[in-house]
Amino acid sequence: MGVLLLAQASRRTSLLHASLRPLLAQSSSYSSTPNIEYKPIKKILVANRGEIAIRVFRACYELKIGSVAIYSEQDKMHMHRQKADEAYLIGKGLSPVQAYLNIPEIVRIAQENHVDAIHPGYGFLSERSDFAQACIDGGIRFIGPTPKVMAMMGDKIAARQSAISADVQVVPGTDKPVETTEEAVAFCEKHGLPVIFKAAYGGGG
Known about the structure:
GO terms for molecular function: ATP binding; ligase activity. InterPro entries: BC-like_N (IPR005481), Biotin_carboxylation_dom (IPR011764), CPAse_ATP-bd (IPR005479), PCB-like (IPR055268), PreATP-grasp_dom_sf (IPR016185). Keywords: ATP-binding, Biotin, Ligase, Nucleotide-binding. This is Putative biotin carboxylase. The chain has about 200 residues and is α/β, with parallel strands linked by helices. It has 2 domains: about 1-10 and about 150-200, no CATH class; about 20-145, Rossmann fold, CATH 3.40.50.20. About 35% of the residues lie in helices and about 15% in strands. It contains 9 helices and 7 strands. It has helices at about 20-25, 50-60, 80-85, 95-100, 105-110, 130-135, 145-155, 155-165, 180-190; strands spanning about 1-5, 45, 65-70, 85-90, 115-120, 140, 195-200. The protein has a 5-stranded parallel β-sheet, sandwiched between helices. The chain has a two-stranded parallel ribbon with strand order 1-7. It is elongated.
């Protein structure tokens, strides 16, 4: 099986869900940024909505961690708002998607309400390295990989090259995005079928 990386495709996001329990006792940092004091997590903001937010809030309740929800104007009656200890409106006047992608406002809400860590859930900002960096720069722990790792693995071309450099065996694939039908056909003729087409900057592995 071969893998073709496509140049033009919409960004999709995948599950980025970190276990909360190991973080409570964790002494080492996800990032070398020096302006964060690593201490037990007492309050978590979930930068998401719906089922994933509710699941994280349930874990917070079981671990006796405070939980904070954000919600758009259109989501004010949604269950995730009711399941958190605290809930704050975000993105007033914006569409739901734009509201949950508002990085400066999410960080501001977290800072103003003494949030220790932010969980991105999946979708929305979960694969955005700039969001992870904004959390760290704001003195808030990001529950997930470091911005450097997110940037590297979010680009499938860079991720593939990193694996090859580390002597990890990979299936035949392209070293750059496929731009034309002719390139795709040539690859298939050389390596045979089946072939998977993946967006170079898409989510989902």
